[in-house]
Each structure stands twice: as structure tokens, then as C-alpha cells.
Design goal:
The chain is an all-beta fold. Helix content is 0%, strand content 48%.
Length: 154
């Protein structure tokens, strides 16, 4: 079976922003997170797709490079990897409360990529451990589920 996909592109350009990479859409398709270069650093941008407006990410540390963003259904939760020297640290930003929570990893595992469940309660993480790539699933017990589909996030 062959599916024909049609596309009409929509670019998200902004002055002072370099290359844009690692896109992640919220489950409802309203928000787009991406990694862009600002002042020589890789940072996550969050854009409301219909308006093209960049949304603030209160609580996120801008001093370190970012990578691998992932969004919950309505975009309440944004998970990403903060680079601290040679180590990557997983953090989850609760946009509704403005709280940034780290996800401690066991042992000497290094996060490579993330994928968040639509309800924001689970996170699949690609890890590098002793030269081998593995995927582990983590529960985020401190998180309440994302808002119900159709509920707007402030």
C-alpha cells in the first residue's frame, strides 16, 4: 500500500537564531520544541505553531547547552538533556508550575535521547552505558498527569 503525503512547510525563523534541529511536537500539535543556536550555545526554543510566537521557558537554565527536547500532550511538560561538561543531565520542566526537576540516572549511564509519554508520567531514555546503547523507561512519580486533551495551557 502506498500513502501519498502532501506537505506545506512552515518555517520558524527569528533574528539571532542559528540552525534549528531536533524538533519535537506536542501530542496535540500546538507546540513545537527545537534546539537552536543562540550566542554560540545550543538552547531549546518553544514555539506556538499557529502564531509562530516563542514561548518563555521559566525555570530552565540557559547557561548550559540543551538537546533532545520532548513534549507531553499539551506541552505542560518539557523534558530535555542539559549538558554539564562531559555529562548530560535529564531535566523535566513543568511549565504550568515553573518547576524544573532533575531525573537522576543510576550508575554511569549517559543520556543520548528522550521521548516523553503523552500524559507526561513516563520517559523513555536512550542511554549509553559501557559502550552499549540501551533504552530504559522511567516513571516520573512526582508528576501529575498532563492536562486532558483539549485543555489549553497558559
Amino acid at each position: 500500500m502506498l500513502f501519498l503525503l502532501t506537505a506545506c512547510g512552515q518555517r520558524f525563523d527569528a533574528p539571532g537564531i542559528g540552525d534549528q534541529q531536533e524538533p519535537a511536537l506536542s501530542g496535540n500539535g500546538r507546540l513545537l520544541a527545537m534546539v537552536a543556536e543562540r550566542s554560540g550555545r545550543r538552547v531549546v526554543r518553544l514555539v506556538e505553531r499557529n502564531s509562530g510566537q516563542e514561548l518563555p521557558l521559566k525555570g530552565l537554565q540557559w547557561g548550559m547547552p540543551h538537546r533532545s527536547p520532548s513534549l507531553s500532550w499539551n506541552g505542560r511538560y518539557l523534558a530535555l538533556i542539559l549538558q554539564r561538561g562531559e555529562r548530560g543531565e535529564i531535566v523535566v520542566l513543568d511549565r504550568a508550575l515553573g518547576l524544573l526537576r532533575p531525573l537522576p540516572l543510576p550508575g554511569d549511564r549517559l543520556p543520548q535521547a528522550l521521548s516523553m509519554s503523552p500524559d507526561g508520567k513516563r520517559l523513555a531514555v536512550q542511554l549509553l552505558h559501557r559502550g552499549q546503547q540501551d533504552v530504559e523507561l522511567f516513571q516520573l512519580p512526582a508528576h501529575e498527569a498532563d492536562l486532558a486533551p483539549g485543555t489549553p495551557l497558559p
